[in-house]
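Our consortium's second objective concerns turning raw sequence data into structural hypotheses that experimental partners can test. To show how far this objective has progressed, the report includes one record in full. It was chosen at random from the queue rather than selected for favorable results. The single chain below, 445 residues long, was entered without modification.
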Amino acid sequence: MKYIPQAREDQKQLLDAIGFKNTEELFTHIPAQLRAKKLNYPPAQSEMELRETFKQISQLSTLPKLNFAGCGIYAHDIPSIVPFLQGRSEFATSYTPYQPEISQGTLQAIFEFQTLACQLTETELSNASMYDGATALAEGVLMGIRLKKKSSGKILLSGALHPFYEQTIRTYCEEFKDRIEKIDIEKDHIDLVKLEKILQSGADILVTQSPNIFGVIEDYSQIGEWIQKSETLWVTSTMEPISFGILRGPGAFGAHIVTAEGQSFGNAAYLGGSSFGIFTTRNEYLRQLPGRLVGETVDTKGRRSYTLTFATREQFIRREKATSNICTNNNLNMLAGLIHMATLGKQGLKELASQNLSLCEYLKNKIRTETKLSISNSPTFNEFVVETTKPASAIVEQAANEGWVCGVDLGRFNPAWKNKLLIHVSELHKPQDLDKVASFLKQNL
């Protein structure tokens, strides 16, 4: 649907039809003290003037020459086929596909995404995507609480969870804050000794993230063994889904609910997005799944077709029976992710993940041999922490003054991490770029 502005005569006709003299009368039911006296909007501009204005805004900040920042949002190469197909009207729409007879392209795209999401995470059931990785994880915790029904056991959060994800969980689960407990970390991963004891004593939900805030891959094999012997429901999060190209999906280790940030697939980093959330689980939890679900069926002529199904959102059923207030999915971003994944294929994803891993290991070895800085021996994927001898913020600032980003200062999240510099490496980086990082750190010890 196109946006068509109304002429003054059109507005007058509409107002006459509903019995109002002017638009101000439409808002008289709002108390005067709650209404803004004046809105400081800039004057109206023509299309040509608007283009010039946005051009000036775009020049306010320059793109860095090199960028090694990750920490939840990752820059990767996006094949040209992604934006080309993403804009096709058969697939992309901002409207909910309630009428399947005119939305088959959109519905099939969602269905195919659900299939790939299950294959990535090694689970059985996926919804149509969610807003982002953090809200997907928070919805996973809420779903776990519903599955546990009236239990009041602990909700365990990994101490190596990204702080933004933790804050999102605490916001969503404000009513259950007295049950939330953080698990200590051992250097840069979950303290497995303490976790085993807690699981043995009993807990309702365990929340983990791998790779975690430090880029470290958690020992899901061991955690999965303990989960199978307990009554705890396991919810996982992954910020970098490309890692699934070489790592087993959490579902393979027994995770009950698997969530992930999908931004790395088909979506540029921009200024912290755009993104979409991946949410998968087991078939037995179908009735508790938040968000949309697209199913495959046949039409009256026996042809394969698709439709929204098992709608348990509050628009369709009584509010108190709804599983979630998530009323949509990030369809456009999800579509970009789907096209990217389909373009890569299984082998392409594996090769891409291997490139990221190899380049990351190259830089780690380079820093170890050329500087006196410490790097953990814990397994990582495509980002890792360098223990700096001075605040990481100073090192990041120095690089910024030179026009590039050397990583993320983890001290911005926790003062105890002020000497931790998180560096992300991907297929976008050339060996000479990695050499520059090592040389820069050596000069700025």
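The partners drew two points from this record. The chain has a mean pLDDT of 91. The longest helix spans residues 331-370. Both points have been shared with the crystallography group to help prioritize constructs.
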